Amino acid sequence: MTKEKRSVFWFRRDLRLEDNHGLCRALAKGSNVRPIFIFDTTILSKLPSTYDRRVDYIHQALQLLQQKLNVFGTDIRVYIGSPLDIFKDLNREGAIGSIFCNGDYEPDAIRRDQLIENWAAGEGIDFVSCKDQVIFEKSEVMKKDGTPYTVFTPYSRVWKSKLSPQALHPFEIEYGGFEKLDFKELPALDAIGFQKTDIQFVESEVEASAIKDYDKSRDFPGMDTTTRLGVALRFGTISIRRCVLLASENNETWLNELIWREFFMQILFHFPESAKLCFKPAYEAIAWRNNEGEFEAWCNGETGYPLVDAGMRELNETGFMHNRVRMVVASFLTKHLLIDWRWGEAYFAGKLLDYDASANVGNWQWAAGCGCDAAPYFRIFNPEEQLRKFDKDLIYVKRWNPDFESKAIHKIVEHAFARDRALSTYKIGLGK
């Protein structure tokens, strides 16, 4: 009698059981579904430090997943290594019939998935990738001529026109189809090569009350009223369908933020070269100063500008930074200091708990004026004016930069001088 081939569900950016499209598809196909997660050493080896809150966050999320799966008589198997090698080993241990996962749209992830899919095809294994982390993916929101939108406003208009109740309907899971697996301890963080951090994973949820005044309060970092769901959306511990449904019913400003997320994803999907190159090629001619000492001062929150320094210290201490402050510090680096946006993007990539390549690249290029839908190059935030407007009582600054008064007398550069220098440098670079 031939043993039933197992299906594998590969968790990636979807660390939840509830409303999980790929998992739903896998379980609907039949029984004997093995849930797995792979700590991909190709990715982990590139991280700048073994103290990484994101790895710890994933590890804790997997522990919760394991507890939930144990209730249904199964477990999650967690592996460390190259995904292709792991799948080859799994197939040798017991024949795989299908691999299910949810799609990822970043260039490296696309290459990884293509490698696995090609191998699977050679072994007679189905590779099924589902849409889960977005409402509309790849080429579902396009211009009438079939080309991708590169400006947010018309993209968002079409995105909203296509939204339907069906697109937000949650995927119901049939829990009886899992492979029967005994409990097996997850690999410890140190076995993966990382340290325990101060991050405390909490299962994410969002209620209407949390976003009803989002449009009024989101720009004031001292109020601390943002949802902080960036990391949950990044790793899929909350459903995007749940979030969009709530946003569409309660706050259009928050809905627009979720649409920005998908806009940047489809930009990176259609223009993968923009991960490293200016979306607008002419901006490659900008003569960045790239002063390493000034960059280090910016990284350490020692520029003498209270809001900039508070933001960088919050980032360094917590892995988070308020969105309004992100715009201010990014503008300061690229315009006041004339340091290449790629330096800032890489620094944020190493620090942000909610780091997402498409949003990080898109927002840094927006700040530098060289991206799609970019702010004009001559828009230069005045960090002192931003402080007066959005943190006039210094609540945020005092929280993260308590010694700001002594530092402010030694500004790294004067605003008026820096603004003129930036305008001149951009004009020369762009041949204006």
UniProtKB/TrEMBL annotation:
Highest taxon above the source species: Bacteria
GO molecular function, one term: deoxyribodipyrimidine photo-lyase activity
Keyword Lyase attributed: yes
Coiled coil location: none
Cofactor(s) of this protein: FAD; (6R)-5,10-methylene-5,6,7,8-tetrahydrofolate
Alphabetical keyword list: Chromophore, FAD, Flavoprotein, Lyase
InterPro entries per the UniProt record, alphabetical: Crypto/Photolyase_FAD-like_sf (IPR036134), Crypto/Photolyase_N_sf (IPR036155), Cryptochr/Photolyase_FAD-bd (IPR005101), Cryptochrome/DNA_photolyase_1 (IPR002081), DNA_photolyase_1_CS_C (IPR018394), DNA_photolyase_N (IPR006050), Rossmann-like_a/b/a_fold (IPR014729)
Keyword Flavoprotein attached: yes
E.C. number(s) listed in UniProt: 4.1.99.3
Chain ranges of the Photolyase/cryptochrome alpha/beta domain: 5-135
Family to which the UniProt record says this protein belongs: Belongs to the DNA photolyase family.
PANTHER family: CRYPTOCHROME, CRYPTOCHROME CIRCADIAN CLOCK 5 ISOFORM X1
Protein name, entry field: Cryptochrome/photolyase family protein
Organism of origin: Sphingobacterium tabacisoli
